[in-house]
Amino acid sequence: RCIFTSEYTAAHLEITECLHADAGLYTITLENKLGSTTGTINLKSNVMIRAGTTLRLPAHITGRPPPYVKWTKDDGTPNKDRVAIEGEGKESVLIVKNITRKDEGKYQVIAANSSGTKSAWTRVEVYGNKNLLVLIICLNYVVYFIMLF
User: Fold this and answer.
1) Domain boundaries, the chain
2) Which of 14, 84, 113, 140 has the lowest CB atom count within 10 Å?
3) Are 11 and 30 in contact (CB under 8 A)?
């Protein structure tokens, strides 16, 4: 799933069929006789998903008394025509079927009870037909990160 190639002026890291397990910090250092350059990208904070697939954001929620659970998109109420929320026991899942770029944004789950409020969020990015991430770093001391759509 990971393909690394290098050309005269650039290096490419391709991760096909990205999974949550691929999240993390990626660093690359390129060197030549003129010096070196290093670039880093953090893939931990975002969910990246291919257009046309189903987004599932699960949350495990506990508390006493059992908390009230609310999901938001971009700090507002999610579009009920596009978003379904399923909950059973301590699990809550936000689901978007046939996801499009209009569904991109910040998704947040909020749990509240008489003891307080807790929340967690992630940013969702939707790709075109390719589920491919490309990292390009050029040796002219300019760092580029490019995602193919």
Assistant:
1) 2-46+128-146, 52-125
2) 140
3) yes
